[in-house]
Design a protein that fits this description.
Blueprint (H helix, E strand, L loop, with lengths): L2 H15 L2 E2 H8 L3 H13 L3 E4 L2 E4 L7 H4 L4 H12 L7 E4 L3 H8 L7 E5 L2 H6 L6 E5 L3 E3 L4 E3 L1 H7 L4 E7 L2 E3 L3 E4 L2 H12 L1 E7 L11 E4 L6 E4 L5 H9 L3 E4 L1
Parallel strand pairs: 4-5, 4-9, 5-6, 9-12, 12-14, 14-15
Antiparallel strand pairs: 1-3, 2-3, 7-8, 10-11, 11-13
Helix pairs in contact: 2-3, 5-6
InterPro entries: Carb_Metab_HTH_regulators, DeoR-like_C, DeoR_HTH, NagB/RpiA_transferase-like, Tscrpt_reg_HTH_DeoR_CS, WH-like_DNA-bd_sf, WH_DNA-bd_sf
Pfam families: DeoRC, HTH_DeoR
Organism: Dyella koreensis
Length: 251
């Protein structure tokens, strides 16, 4: 089998099964595990999969830049945002993450809502400038332009002084065993700090993020209390999360 054909077969198997195992591929294609690992390295370098120990998982397309991500799954993100907005109670202190789905969440907050929103995202803050009942607390730091969020030691220091009711988290990958992940190391540290400062964690997950993985782990999947997904997300995709005790809310 030619290398190009083998790589295409690997991608086909990954799409079909949701993961591939290097040892199994080596036996199936009659080549060494070293050859398969080289194939996986090259496919990962092209952004076509995410390598993990022993094999690979689908790579999240949500790792693209902010402007590009705003064009991905806009209707589904809006539906997820509307459902998430319904979870916020008057008087709560709410952390809203950066990212395009979270921007939609800010846009769907009712005009009558009285609450405090803590965010490290200038995009979220700007969306709420004219909201009459929401106090906005900005977390500062170095601006990570790719995601338009503050990161770094200053951001984490400020986060450590917050106690929130709920944290709405944006991610690029949600996987039952690979956990919650994102494409930048510093951003992962900030998200992990936010998890620790909230009584409840709600992960907003459009279809392209589910059972996908990115290079930097935020936390285990069980750090999430609730997963908000699209209404037509297949049951087989969400069942592993429900089995972990995570509530699955369909938008």
């Amino acid at each position: 089998m030619l290398t190009s054909h083998r790589k295409q077969a690997i991608l086909t198997a990954l799409k079909r099964d949701g993961q591939v195992i290097a040892k199994s591929l080596s036996e199936e294609y009659g080549v060494s595990e070293d050859t398969i690992r080289r194939d996986l390295r090259e496919l990962a370098a092209e952004g076509l999969l995410q390598r993990v120990h022993g094999g690979a998982l689908p790579s999240s397309p949500a790792a693209a830049d902010f402007a590009h991500r705003e064009q991905i799954s806009t209707e589904s993100k809006s539906a997820i945002a509307r459902k998430a907005a319904e979870m916020i109670l008057p008087g709560q202190v709410v952390i809203i993450d950066g990212g395009t789905t979270c921007v939609q969440l800010a846009r769907h907050l009712p005009a009558t809502l009285q609450a405090t929103v803590v965010t490290h995202s200038p995009s979220i803050a700007v969306e709420l400038v004219d909201h009459p009942g929401i106090e906005v607390v900005m977390i500062g730091g170095r601006l990570f332009k790719h995601s338009v969020v503050a990161v770094g030691a200053a951001a984490i220091e400020a986060i450590n002084h917050i106690r929130a009711d709920v944290y709405f988290m944006g991610v690029t990958g949600v996987h039952p065993t690979a956990g919650l992940s994102t494409g930048d190391l510093e951003e992962a540290y900030v998200k992990r700090a936010l998890v620790e400062r909230a009584a409840e964690v709600v992960v907003l997950a459009s279809a392209e993020k589910i059972n996908a993985a990115s290079p930097y782990v935020i936390a285990q999947a069980t750090a999430a209390n609730t997963l908000v997904v699209e209404r037509d997300t297949p049951e087989e995709a969400t069942a592993p999360f429900a089995a972990l005790g995570i509530a699955v809310l369909r938008a």
